[in-house]
Amino acid sequence: MSYLPDHFTENNWGNIKPFIELFPLATMITSFENEIFTSHIPFIFEENRLLGHINKDNPQFHHLDECRVELVFHGGDAYISPSLFLTDELPTFNYAKVHVKGKVTFVDDARLITSLVNMTDQLDSNFKLDYSHPRIDKLKHFIQGFEISLESFHGRFKMSQDKSKSHFKRAKSVLEESQNQRLRSFLKGLEY
Where in the sequence is the signal peptide annotated (predicted)? Predict the structure, then answer.
């Protein structure tokens, strides 16, 4: 058996791009001088490139320009109990993730500001960020905009597709219920 099996792997850009647009916050992974670095960065599309920004105090910033990266976009996960099905199953985890590999190039301040305005437009229907907002001029000195040229991508959508249609449908609802329940539980216990 190859990893991941074909029925859990998604290579169709027409399915990958909307997934990234729905779940734009990625784990960005780099390697530099035998150390692994990770950050959580939101991305938007500009043609066939991803645009993001990073705080210049982030240690990952110092080696990022011209670096190769891997991004992991997370769409959720759930433990799937055999008790939920009539068939003989083993416990498993189902999940939806997209992996993207590419090369980073820093962009100038004008492109950074455009990407911040565009990101806000795409993610927020209640707030309009104006190019002349006074905080942008102050903020741009502390962050660096960058683009990622895409080299490869694939989705890992493990949702019991190898089972019956009814099993698949139930597994999808378990993922949704589990995400909501765990998030409520986490938020309820979170205090500052």
Answer: none
Instruction: Report which of 97, 102, 9, 11 is spatially closest to residue 48, judged by C-alpha positions.
Output: 102
Q: Which domain holds residue 106?
A: 6-184
Question: Is the distance from CB of 78 to CB of 71 less than 8 angstroms?
Answer: no
* Strand 49-55, strand 9-10: pairing: unpaired
Which band of pLDDT confidence, cut at 50, 70 and 90, is reported for residue 58?
very high
Q: 107: domain CATH number? A: 2.30.110.10
Q: Is 171 helix (H, G, I), strand (E, B) or coil?
A: helix
Which structure tokens are listed for 68?
A: 């190769």
pLDDT band at 186 (very low <50, low <70, confident <90, very high): very high
pTM for the structure as a whole: 0.91
For CA atoms 81, 24, 143, 30, the dihedral sign is positive
Q: What is the pLDDT of residues 118-152, one digit of tens each?
A: 999 999 999 999 988 888 888 889 999 999 999 99
Within a domain: residue 192? no
Element housing 188 (H / E) = helix 165-189
